[in-house]
Amino acid sequence: MGPFGNRSGGMGQQGQRRGLKLWPILLFGLYFGWYYFSHRSEASFTGRQQMLDSTAQEEAALGLQSYQEILQTSQVVRSGPLPQQVQDIAQRLVEAAPKVEKYLAEQAGVPASTDWSAYQWQVSVIESDQVNAFCLPGGKIAVYTGIVPVAANTDGLAVVMGHEIAHALMRHGGERMAQQKLVQIGSIAASMSTGEMDPGQRQMVMAAIGAGAQYGLLLPFSRSHESEADKVGLMLTAAACFNPQEAPRLWERMASLGKQKPPEFMSTHPAESTRIDQLNSWMGEAEQVRQHFCGESPSMQ
C-alpha cells in the first residue's frame, strides 16, 4: 500500500475532518440577540433588565407542583409554636411586599408591575437538619427546622424568609429557566460547530466552552440573584417592622458554622463576607424604609 492509499479509502474517518464551523455559532448569535431583546422586561422592584419567556402563572404552576412533591416526601411540622411563628412572620412580610414594590419602583423610576394574582402564599415547616429555607414561584414557602438555631430569633428568621420571598417576587426561577434554554441551544450550536474536528481537539474545545459558560455566565448569574434577593429581602424585613440589622449578624452566624465551601467564583452564592459587606452597605436605606413604614428605625430602639 502506498503512503497515500489510506487517504482514499478513509475519508469518512479522518480526511474529511475540518476545523470549527462558524455558521451554527452565527445562527445562535442571531437567535440569542432576537431572544434577548424580545423577552426582556424591567424588574419592578429594581428596574433591572431581566429576561423571561414564561408568565408568572406558568411559573406558579411549576412551583406548586414542586412544592406538593416536596411536602409529600417530607416530615411537615403541624403543631407547636414554630409553625405559628413562621406563619406570622410570613404574613407580615407578604403584607409589606406591595408597599416595598411601590417604594422601590418609584425610586428606580419604573412601574410597579408585579402580577399579584399569581401568588397564592403558603408556608410550611419541615423537620430536617438542613440549614435552609426556600420560596418557590407562586409563593410556596418552606422553612427547615435546621435553620432555626442559626436564625436565633424572630428577626433573624424574618431575614431568612424575606430573602426567599424576594427570590419569588423577582421571578428568579423564570429567569433561570430562560437562561437554561439559551445555554442548551448554545451547547447544541457548539456541538454542531465542532462536529468535524479531531475528537481529542473537539473534547478540549467543548470542555473550554462548558467551563466558560459555567464560570463566566451561570455562576455569576446565580450570585447576582442571591445578592438581589439579599437587598430586596432586607427591605421587606425592614418594611415589615423587623430589625434589618439582624441580617449581617445572621451571616456572621452562618460563617461561624465552619462548613467547607468552594471559592466564591466557583459557588452559586456569594461568600458570607461579601454578603455581610453588602448588607451593611444597604443598611442605611433599610433603616429609612423601616422608619418610613414603621415610624422608627432599629437605632431608635
What does this entry look like structurally?
This protein is of the alpha+beta class and 301 residues long. The chain has one domain (51-300). Helix content is 62%, strand content 7%. It has helices at 5-9, 11-15, 23-38, 56-72, 81-108, 148-151, 154-169, 172-193, 199-239, 246-256, 272-294, and strands at 40-42, 49-51, 76-77, 122-126, 133-136, 140-144. A four-stranded mixed β-sheet has the order 3-4-6-5, with helices on both faces. A two-stranded antiparallel sheet has the order 1-2. A hairpin with a 6-residue loop joins strand 1 (40-42) and strand 2 (49-51). The N and C termini lie far apart (93 Å). The relative contact order is 0.12.
Write the layout of secondary structure elements.
Blueprint: H1 5-9, H2 11-15, H3 23-38, E1 40-42, E2 49-51, H4 56-72, E3 76-77, H5 81-108, E4 122-126, E5 133-136, E6 140-144, H6 148-151, H7 154-169, H8 172-193, H9 199-239, H10 246-256, H11 272-294
Parallel strand pairs: 4-6
Antiparallel strand pairs: 1-2, 3-4, 5-6
Helix pairs in contact: 3-8, 5-7, 5-9, 7-9, 7-10, 8-9, 9-11, 10-11
